[in-house]
Amino acid sequence: MKGFAMLEIGKVGWIDAERPSAGPYDAIVKPLAVAPCTSDVHTVWEGALGNRKNMILGHEAVGVIEETGSEVKDFKPGDKVIVPAITPDWRSMEAQDGMPMHSNGMLSGWKFSNFKSGVFAEYFHVNDADMNLALLPKGMPLEQAVMLSDMATTGIQGAEMANIKTGSTVAVIGIGPVGLMAVAGASILGAGRLIAVGSRQVCVDLSLEYGASEVVDYRKGGLVGQILEKTNGKGVDSVIIAGGNENTISDAVKIVKPGGTVSNVNYYGTGDTLPIPRIEWGSGMSHKDIRGGLTTGGRLRMERMAALCTYGRIKPEKMATHVFEGFDKIEEALMLMKDKPRDLIKPVVLL
Ligand code: NDP
Ligand code: ZN
Q1: Which of 93, 114, 263, 284 is most buried (most C-beta within 10 Å)?
Q2: Together in a domain, 7 and 143
Q3: Using a 6 Å CB cutoff, which residues line ligand 1?
């Protein structure tokens, strides 16, 4: 079968790979819609996970089940499903301990396009289908559903980790698709003042629609000064980092109040260390909490993300600025994600 792969660091291309087969608890899925992720860009062009040879990329998909293992009870061939980017090993001690995304090792719930073939293929394998797939609700558009695999769950998790108190002030640094979902999540969780940080106009407009009360353009003067000025030097209660560079964590510590929370879902692709500014971190005594997390995966999480769409709480399909048709468009879509033209939020490929 055909797949679009990372050939080595900095190189991508089409490869022929063996069609996967299902173990007793697994499923083989044929994609109906896929989307490239900024994480694929970090993985290929920054070599963030180390070298990978001929690894099929992609971890955001909606598909139709082609085959199920003998022990799969809730799904059958022909079912349309939402596939989470993170497909944990649910029979693991880490999952029992509330950390399914790190089942059997740090980040190991993230299998597709990390250490197993991803979804940019004619067929892909899903481990523990009953626990990791969610039925596509009837009538849900594919452009909406494919945003749930990663963008909705990650952005909203950024908000969930941010300890948002009702009416508190929240800043979201980065309003690409992940940050936009963080804005939507923070709004649902009760943020009062909600400051979005970004520069692309399409993202700015959608952030206001998703609940931001105002926007700071980090390209027009530093974001730290602008946010401190807006808050009379006091800073914000919570910061969600969903974009930026290695210094963004430092910016976040500078703008969060003592006792506040910095919640990071950004993927730092380069560098050995990340800077925490000593003075603004109260020389270690500021009670500024710094958290970071890989998104939650699995079936229940996907069902809950779908419920947010069904009941009109989030509208992630609005982020699909570039919709392609056909398997061979995957390459173009990934290159768009790499180049980030200013009218892009997220590309989707319908198959
Ligand atoms: P995008 O590149 O689309 O968006 C990044 C955002 O950050 C843009 O709004 C951009 O602004 C802004 N930005 C860039 N540089 C700076 C800066 N110096 N200071 C402040 N803001 C800046 O990314 P995505 O939304 O697709 O993904 C965001 C991150 O989340 C990525 O690192 C991705 O790998 C990661 N990720 C993490 C996951 C997890 O499980 N934790 C899962 C999925 C993704 P501008 O408007 O100028 O472009
Ligand atoms: Zn991703």
Answers
A1: 263
A2: yes
A3: 37-39, 42, 150, 154, 173-179, 197-200, 203, 218, 223, 242-245, 248, 265-267, 294-295, 340
